[in-house]
């Protein structure tokens, strides 16, 4: 297990987790904006311009809670990989000493 974790590129996993979290956050914000617009908030409706229509439709098809859970899972894995890699390097240094 440690050998497998050591081969993983922890910084890349961290970047992936950040990107997924950002997508989940954007989807959630768009969902809130759409709900506000649908409830009659004129300012929210104005923010949903024609330029944003395609983006809104795409994000509406996303399952925001699932993306959020996926981002959290990737983030947890990235943290574990970083911790395991750090421990592995420490153990190697101790053995070399």
Question: Main traits of this protein?
Answer:
single chain; 97 residues; mainly alpha; 89% helix; 0% strand; rod-shaped
Summarize the structure in words.
The chain has 97 residues and is mainly alpha-helical. It has 5 helices and no strands. Helix 2 (10-38) runs antiparallel to helix 5 (64-96). The two termini are 24 Å apart.
List the helices and strands and how they pair.
Elements (H helix, E strand, L loop, with lengths): L1 H6 L2 H29 L3 H6 L2 H12 L2 H33 L1
Helix pairs in contact: 2-5
In helices, the fraction of residues equals over 70%
How many extended strands?
0
Helix count from the secondary structure assignment = 5
H/E series: HHHHH
What form results from the Cα inertia axes?
rod-shaped
- Could you tell me the strand content as a percent range? under 5%
> How many strands, which pairing sense, and closed or not: the largest β-sheet?
none
- Measured on Cα atoms, how large is the radius of gyration? 20 Å
Q: Regions with pLDDT < 50 over 5+ consecutive residues? A: none
Q: What's the end-to-end separation, in Å?
A: 24 Å
Average predicted local confidence, pLDDT: 76
Structural class of the secondary elements?
Answer: mainly alpha
What's this model, at a glance?
This protein has 97 residues and is an all-alpha fold. The chain has helices at residues 2-7, 10-38, 42-47, 50-61, 64-96.
């Amino acid at each position: 297990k440690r050998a497998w974790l050591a081969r993983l590129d922890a910084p890349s996993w961290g970047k992936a987790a950040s990107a997924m979290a950002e997508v989940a956050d954007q989807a959630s914000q768009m969902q809130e904006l759409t709900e506000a617009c649908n409830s009659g908030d004129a300012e929210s409706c104005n923010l949903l311009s024609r330029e944003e229509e395609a983006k809104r439709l795409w994000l509406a098809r996303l399952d925001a809670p699932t993306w959020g859970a996926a981002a959290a899972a990737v983030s947890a894995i990235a943290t574990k990989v970083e911790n395991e890699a750090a421990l592995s390097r420490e153990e190697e240094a101790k053995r070399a000493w």
